[in-house]
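Example pasted here:
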Amino acid sequence: MSLATANEQRQSFMGLLSSEWIKIRSVRSTVFTLIVTAILTIGISSLGAFAIAANWSHVSAARRLTFDPTSRSLSGVLLGQLALGVLGILVFTAEVATGTLSATFTAVSSRTKVLLAKITVFAIVAVVVAEIVSFASFFAGQALLSGTTPTATLSGTNVLRAVAGTGLYMAILALFALGLGVIVRHTAGAITTFVALVLVLPLLVTALPTSLSNDINRYLPFTIGQTMMSVHSQPNTFGAWAGLGILAIYTVIIFVIANWRLTSRDA
């Protein structure tokens, strides 16, 4: 094989996809973070379901009327989304920290193609993992709720939408985190920014006047996720799919900025 041919293969998009896949599956932190994501999401969801089942006899009548077994069995997403988001950040910042990103850019002339390859491979991984943990959380939660509390099935109204949609929400949010990693370039800084946007910002918004708080809150990723997890419509929020579309728009915007940063500065 000639040097020119080898270089063409490295720079082909399929070659880049193969390279990114090797990077993701060969790094220990990736496997560890995926395990943490599964444990946090399924484990906390199961604990939440167990807690409500054990105390169902003490639950008020008003709360029983509004009880959503689907949302309860997906409660672990609150922390699982953070773990998957951290993985998205590490997909890029780990290469920056080890210096391998410079080697990648030396071998591949188009930084945009490198970014697209990272997005594509990580999107596939994130969707598969997020959907697995979302469905596993649902089934584990319903098993623990069964016999003492109302339960849900995938054939119920909006249940399949909630479970599958929650997986998509986690995956898109993880891609958003990847974009933050590309922009910030430092693991600690990107993780801090991600946590602030997902968990801290909603708390700050509650301190605003109610009318302003409601207007802003409906656009926040945390609210979008909570809406997707529920089978019931939520007040002062977008519909589940509309909210997911807004989150997808945020992610596209963050990647446009990330690509500009990536192509306008040194590796």
In short: Residues 111-145 form the longest helix (35 residues). The CA atoms of residues 203 and 249 lie 23 Å apart.
